[in-house]
Amino acid sequence: MNHQELHVIFGTGPLGKWTMRELLRLNKQVRLVNRTGDRRGVPEEVEVVAGNAYDRSNVTALTTGAAAVYQCAQPAYPDWVTSFMPMQQAIVDGTAVHGARLIVAENLYMYGMPSSSPFVESTPCRAHTRKGKVRQLMTEALEQAHREGKLRVARVRGSDFWGPDDKAATPFIFGPLLAGKRATLLGSRHLPHTFTYAPDFGKALAIAGTQDSALGEVWHVPSNPPVTQMELCLAIAAEWNTRAKSGVADTWLIRLLGLANPTMREMAEMMYQWKHPFVMDSSKFSATFGMQATPMKEAIADTIRWYRNHVNTPQSAPK
């Protein structure tokens, strides 16, 4: 019989997998839940089950005996407005039956337009986009559930993330640069932007799920100081010993592409994040739990190594 403490993770994308790895390092028993039971990239000792995150009774069954539950799953981007809130509600209701901790991965959409000051955990939620308003309603519902004693919740927020296992954003910059081609940047090359490293996001979620002092709080994932998109490209190119070539996709182009691509259509309203300085302060988490962001150079080197091993890309820099 396995007497390790059980931790259940909904979602097997990059955040789910990096949370899993940190929990395994902490000697926890891990169960992953996704729609199909697909276990690609998952160690043998980790249980993977097919589950329905929209079904409260299924969530209840899958989280029986869990000390902590992690919400790292999300609907397809075009379905956020209609599907995300029902998914979260089913996970909240199903988890509450057992009294497990609920650790929720969030982004920064709920804050709305940035001001001259960095986002901190106490920044008021002033969402102005459709998806931002959904995120605001979701985080307010979590706060209410914790305040009313329905269950114990920690909300862990990261900025735009990249790194190993991320096959959404990471390929748009790393892929072209490693192939000697032009990376596509968004909005502006030269505005400071906080980026969160995916492994750091997973580590922060695991810490929040194993520390009672994290409960009832909002936390920002430890992230490196902000850089511009161009500075990120230059750092990647320097690590790969190649030139940093880039082009910029502005809002009008994203809207045009959105005529045929539903994901691009949904991206258009979020372009404000790339047309203003977008800076997140994460000092609260570091001061409380002692975790620091992975240094940028190390994170880039690890991501290049992963990309070379998992994507059809040159084994050396283009000449």
From TrEMBL:
<protein>
    <submittedName>
        <fullName>Nucleoside-diphosphate-sugar epimerase</fullName>
    </submittedName>
</protein>
<feature type="domain" description="NAD-dependent epimerase/dehydratase">
    <location>
        <begin position="11"/>
        <end position="212"/>
    </location>
</feature>
<dbReference type="InterPro" id="IPR050177">
    <property type="entry name" value="Lipid_A_modif_metabolic_enz"/>
</dbReference>
<dbReference type="Pfam" id="PF01370">
    <property type="entry name" value="Epimerase"/>
</dbReference>
<dbReference type="InterPro" id="IPR001509">
    <property type="entry name" value="Epimerase_deHydtase"/>
</dbReference>
<dbReference type="InterPro" id="IPR036291">
    <property type="entry name" value="NAD(P)-bd_dom_sf"/>
</dbReference>
